[in-house]
Design brief:
Two copies of one chain form a homodimer. By secondary structure, chain A is α+β, with helices and mostly antiparallel strands. Chain A is 31% helix and 25% strand. In chain A, the strands form three sheets. In chain A, strands 13-12-11-14-10-15 form a six-stranded mixed beta sheet, sandwiched between helices. In chain A, strands 3-9-8-7-6 form a five-stranded mixed beta sheet, sandwiched between helices. In chain A, strands 1-2-4-5 form a four-stranded mixed beta sheet, with helices on both faces.
Chain lengths: 408, 408
């Protein structure tokens, strides 16, 4: 399959190394391809971890094990396999993961529970243990690589590598956060089909790292959708090596905790949006701003109902300001809404207010806005103070072309 | 837009007249087209009615009024406008409906509440009252027409007219049920984007007619989906003229009540499946059979999660037995499921059983099955006795082509 670079792609940003994090890549040849497909990240002793995992009940062994391991709060290594998700592979799949954990733990002299494994790709084929073993061995011998190389290696159907960084001052020390992510289809909250990793040199207690990551998740990864489908492998992990030397953050009241949380939010929002920018077949990046809902959560659900509507997504693909379809999607969300108070707009122009089309509605500036790559849809419910922003892409022939012939 | 006949279309069946039902059609010219777009159905005195209405909270005035009228249980006429849904048009839209009700009521000498109005088409443009008035006047003068003519006239983006019939013996009398339906996109439960009408000469008390229609709905109209979108106008109405002369059915214990309910189920299932067969861009009719769920309702939700998954629908379009995507869709449904007891099959062949791919899985017969127009997906959860059947179509380039340029 020929995957051309998404027209919504952004260049890979300049990202500094993170003290205590070493990246290596290798060829495990999980598929018949000649590319690196195994990423190995070594983490300094004392690294803490927090995680977010798919809610799909048919999740992979990687997700089951990772969820348990993350509760222990300690990490020394991360292995990411690309090309095979190892999901729905029963005990064979679980053994493959445990073998990788044991191999790396023996090398580092750590607990297997400190070795995190993620796999992404086709469902239903047990990860070949011989290739994994050889791939790990090759990675352990490989030189360190760049963030961009690692971002490329964790990718599957991605058309561009995705990374983001932010910095913050924590207790007089500058801390850095760097993240990479993969994902382009099977994207919906809980979680998107994606594997995302954020690394920081800040010192953060595991419980507080989890608190921050979970809070940020609600306004970032939970606010994107490509096709409403939810993968069996989705995982976001945050690792904190502590090498910046700050007093470990343990609560929201600690000096610098706000700044750290804001930087984490910044990185996660960038990463989440990058996944949408690589949505399969995407030609337009759509921001849906919902205001006036009863609660923020209600606003988010209404935004996702609009974002997941095939009729809205195809209308945007066609450059059609079809606000009637937005009304439909608001109405089907199952959330409080009053038709006669509802307003819909595109690109800063209202097209309908309080349940009726605007009498003096001028379609020209709206049509012009819809020709661009970045489309804004505004939904105002006039019910309360709840608000949310949700990001998605349009639904095009490209999505069909990619997905009607992926596995074969 | 050139709409070619769906490859899944069925020929219009032979359908007898229903005593007490007169069909007439006319040109109201709601759009710049030269076709009949107004359907007028006159119903004998004493006709009872039951209804199902969209749960979309941004529903049209037609739906708001129809829901109130149906509670009264009596009907003398039905008017269906095609080309303009009159949804999201505020007080102007409501006045247009009330004008139609008054005009027909004056003609028949009945209550306005006995005149049911439905509209389907573009959202956000008030129904032009002058055209409606002239259209009604023309229809009242028109000769009676066939079921097929009426089915064509209520259609919008439909590519073929849809009708179904059934008969039953009720208390020694043969009763006939005839139904017509329109709808091809914006199809999901609660309800599909559709307008459906069932007429019978049976005598049925309104409360029992509503009971039967609501029960049947759970296994028919609630089990279809094209694109997960839910219209602002969806309505199904059942009218019983009583001219067959049976003792009016009032409860499940009445002689013939079972036979009548079964015939109603038969007609509604046929009508629901016809809507899927005209799904926008559909090239394959997909039946998803879910067994072993905890409850029937849980089975239905799992079936709809599979049916609504763009990744499953595109895989079927591509003839790809991608059972991993079915696993994903089962897992994201939010219903009880145990990955390690889950089995997936296509066309009578299991591809995965109890959480793992079959060791001796032979893809050849499955690939052959997927080449056909009628695809069967089996999901067995091995948890309980809950079962459901759900119908959908594949997702193709045709869907994008139709929906990326509909309004303009």
């Amino acid at each position: 399959m020929d995957l051309t670079r998404s027209p919504l792609a952004l260049p890979f940003p300049a990202m500094p190394p993170i003290d205590g994090v070493t990246l290596r890549i290798a060829r495990a040849r999980y598929k018949a391809w000649d590319r690196c497909d195994l990423t190995y990240v070594e983490l300094a002793e004392g690294t803490t971890i927090a995680g977010l995992f798919t809610k799909n009940v048919c999740c992979s062994s990687e997700v089951e094990l990772g969820r348990e391991q993350a509760r222990l709060g300690r990490a020394r290594a991360l292995v990411v396999n690309a090309g095979n998700s190892n999901a729905f592979t029963g005990w064979r799949g679980r053994e493959a993961v445990e073998q990788i954990m044991a191999q790396v733990a023996a090398h580092l002299g750590c607990e297997p529970s400190e070795v995190f494994v993620c796999s992404t790709g086709v469902i239903g084929v047990p990860l070949p243990t011989d290739r994994a073993q050889e791939g790990i061995a090759a990675a352990l011998d490989a030189p360190g690589c760049s963030w961009e190389d690692a971002a490329l290696t964790i990718g599957t159907t991605d058309t561009f590598p995705k990374g983001a960084m932010a910095q913050a001052m924590v207790g007089g020390r500058r801390v850095t956060l760097a993240g990479i992510i993969k994902g382009s289809g099977m994207i919906a909250p809980d979680m998107a089909t994606m594997l995302g990793y954020i690394f920081t040199d800040a010192a953060v207690e595991p419980a507080f790292l989890q608190y921050c990551l979970s809070a940020v998740n609600e306004r970032t990864f939970q606010c994107i959708t490509v096709d409403s489908d939810t993968s069996t492998s989705d995982t976001v992990l945050a690792f904190a090596t502590g090498r910046a030397g700050n007093v470990p953050l343990a609560s929201v009241d600690d000096a610098g905790a706000d700044a750290f949380a804001a930087a984490l939010h910044d990185v996660c929002r960038q990463l989440a949006q990058l996944v949408v920018r690589d949505g399969e077949g995407a030609s337009k990046f759509i921001t849906i701003g919902v205001t006036g809902a009863e609660t923020d959560e209600s606003a988010r659900r209404i935004g996702l109902s609009v974002a997941n509507s095939p009729l809205v997504k195809t209308a945007i693909a066609g450059g059609d300001a079809n606000w009637g379809r937005v009304v439909m999607a608001v109405g089907k969300a199952g959330e409080p809404a009053d038709r006669d108070r509802l307003s819909i707009g595109f690109g800063g122009h209202w097209t309908a207010r309080e349940g009726q089309p605007l009498a003096d509605y001028d379609e020209a500036p709206v049509a012009e806005h819809l020709k661009g790559r970045e489309v804004q849809i505004a939904v105002d419910l006039s019910l309360g103070d709840g608000r949310a922003e949700v990001w998605t892409c349009d639904l095009t022939h490209g999505y069909i072309a990619i997905n009607a012939d992926y596995r074969s």
